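Appendix B, example 12.
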Amino acid sequence: MAASTQPDSYEHLRPAQPSQRLRIAYLITNSEIGGAQSHVGDLLQSMQGRAETVLLAGGDGPLFDIAARAGAETRRLTRLDNALSPWRAVTALHELVHALKSAAPDLIHVHSAKAGALGRIAGLRLGLPVVYTVHGFAFKPEAPWRQRLAARAAEWLLAPLASRVICVAEAERRLASSLPVPADRIAVIPNGIPDTAHRAAPQAPLRRLVMVARFAAPKRPDAVIRAFARANLRDCELVLAGDGPQRTAMEQLAQQLAPGRVRFPGNVADIPALLASAQAFVLASDHEGFPLSVLEAMRAGLPVTASDLPGIREQIGHNSHGLLVDHDDESEFSAALEALASDSALRGALGSAARRRWEQHYGLDQMTEATWSVYRDALASNPRGASLPT
């Protein structure tokens, strides 16, 4: 994927009378349901009226519909996926450069590992500033060692190509500081989500426990199923919302360990309503950046039981907004679930505290304003001389 250092000119593709508003291309590898996709959808919605937006993504998932409803143009990249084939990466880069020339943005905002890599190379070729949001570095200590080595090498080579790097947590910023990118190009902007009218009643008898996640690494629905089956949770069902390559195996595990007590509704369109119907939220994962699903649970006013990981620790405090556990310790995990099940006052107190913390720190407006400021900085440092409209 050798890239020329000479920008490709595409000024002739711009309109004769260009808009005065900033034009932003949002690039992500897959358009399927997931935390990073929800984040991009929220950004597209929040940029309405501020900027012209274009979504570029692989697959044929619901993010395209979300983008269209937000008033964004959409372009499906047929070659962009998570395949490790070098040849497919080369053809995906060629397709991406062509699509960006057609879209003619002022700035590219990239999300997810492969899109982040190809987008930075395309930005170099086209002379465009690139903002790279890291939803979770793949070389964190909890990741498998082969993945860590490959991811670290790729990020080391590509880090200088980003005009600005956005980390969603301080833990990710500490990892970014080990890369060849100046500290003043790194910003920490926690994920933010819009409010909804849906509220949970966690102090009610525990009848439903919910996890929302894709059935794929690094998520650990197997740990949740095992802890749920072990815990003494009478008259309570576990709802595992989402889809992915591990779903069939998890359905089989649930049938083996907790027959008839675990539901798999697939991708749920109305997550706020689902969370409002529950009395507690759970998330197990081997590593995380700053999971949106935890913020969604906090917004609903739910107590959270989650893996004790750096990014999650920034979201919730143990015994303050939820319970943090070692998900590989089945007895500890199940004991935490039993503690919530047996104490409605604890569920209510943790849920109320989680909601207040979300209101104070993780609303969409805070994230939008901070991101807009990063765009301004990236454009100001771009040698092409573009500037952010006021």
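The radius of gyration is 21 Å. The chain has two domains: 11-192+364-380, 208-361.
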